[in-house]
TrEMBL record:
Organism lineage string: Bacteria, Pseudomonadati, Pseudomonadota, Alphaproteobacteria, Acetobacterales
Classification via SUPFAM superfamilies: UDP-Glycosyltransferase/glycogen phosphorylase
PANTHER family: ADP-HEPTOSE--LPS HEPTOSYLTRANSFERASE 2 (PTHR30160:SF7), TETRAACYLDISACCHARIDE 4'-KINASE-RELATED (PTHR30160)
Record-linked InterPro entries: Glyco_trans_9, LPS_LOS_Heptosyltrfase
Source taxon at top rank: Bacteria
Protein name in the entry: Glycosyltransferase family 9 protein
Signal peptide: none
Length: 306
């Protein structure tokens, strides 16, 4: 069986789509899967079983990226084409079955929207694929002997960023003598680029030797392996937040202007803390330390109970 799976440009949306892929791989164990996605999301699928290749959809003027994709796949007879980009592309290639997401805004969580494409309710949870070399590097970066808390103080735009001093205060409350993870250290993660490094810099400076700086230094499968070693991840609405939830780590997503009802973290142990004036005013400043701390403690308590 040959499957063409056209996924997203953004990392978070690509991570959410992994549940569909995981379902298809288990349903069709011998399937050969070709993934088409944006360059930023390539690492999401790098360790995926049954993946024959990944085709990068780099945007070009006049939508020529679709023509370039067509030239690479039109000669194959596909048993299934899944298009999450709401394009007409699936109808330009030979396919036994086509599943195409409709464009525009849809009600409900993105995961439920994806599951509905294949009639899956409840929808399959996202997964994070890693290889032994990713897990070995993660073990070297975050050695055992104590708990680690992953912190994601960055996002793709400043309006989604919780104030850095509150990240620091939350870490102090969680790791102090009376906290649920006394003595834990921090793994600070973020994407590449000067903007994300600037966002993370105040947190790294405040935590000093208690933090490992991993901002922009990990491929996505390595980041997934690092997150899987953390006792807790707290981060802004971002691709890293979704990757952490997919890795099975207790994950607290921090939300203000973005749509928590559509993009809240989805995983076996995930929760969101939401600014009370969101989304009407969309200010991350409205999300208090007390609200985030209570949500984090609840996640950790649920893990112990499980």
């Amino acid at each position: 069986m040959r499957i063409l799976f056209i996924s997203s440009t953004r990392i978070g949306d690509a991570v959410l789509s992994t549940g569909l892929l995981d379902h298809l791989i288990h349903r069709h164990p011998g399937a050969e899967v070709v993934v088409a996605c944006g360059p930023a999301a390539e690492g999401v699928f790098a360790r995926m079983p049954n993946r024959v290749r990944t085709i990068l959809l780099r945007k070009h003027r006049w939508k020529l990226h679709w023509l370039r994709l067509w030239r690479q796949v039109a000669g194959t007879r596909w048993d299934l084409v899944v298009d999450l980009r709401a394009s007409a592309f699936a109808f330009t290639v030979w396919a036994g079955r086509r599943v195409v997401m409709r464009g525009g805004r849809h009600p409900g969580h993105r995961l439920a929207q994806l599951g509905a494409l294949l009639g899956l309710a409840p929808p399959p949870l996202p997964v994070a694929w890693t290889a032994p070399e990713d897990r070995a590097r993660a073990a070297a970066l975050l050695p055992g002997g104590g708990a680690w808390i992953g912190l994601g103080p960055t996002a793709n735009w400043a309006g989604k960023v919780w104030p850095p001093e509150r990240f620091v205060a939350l870490f102090e409350a969680l790791t102090g003598p009376a906290g649920p993870l006394p003595g834990a250290r921090a793994a600070v993660l973020g994407g590449p680029g000067a903007m994300e490094r600037d966002m993370a810099a105040p947190v790294l400076a405040a935590l000093g030797g208690r933090a490992v700086d991993l901002v922009g230094r990990l491929a996505l499968p390595e980041a997934a392996a690092v997150l899987a070693r953390c006792a807790l991840f707290v981060g802004n609405d971002s691709g890293l937040m979704h990757l952490s939830a997919a890795a099975g780590t207790p994950t607290l997503g921090l939300f203000g202007p973005s749509r928590v009802e559509e993009y809240g973290p989805s995983g076996p142990r995930a929760a969101a803390a939401v600014a009370p004036d969101s989304p009407a005013l969309g200010s991350m400043a409205g999300l208090t330390l007390e609200t985030a701390l209570a949500a984090a403690q609840g996640l950790l308590a649920a893990k112990v109970a499980a």
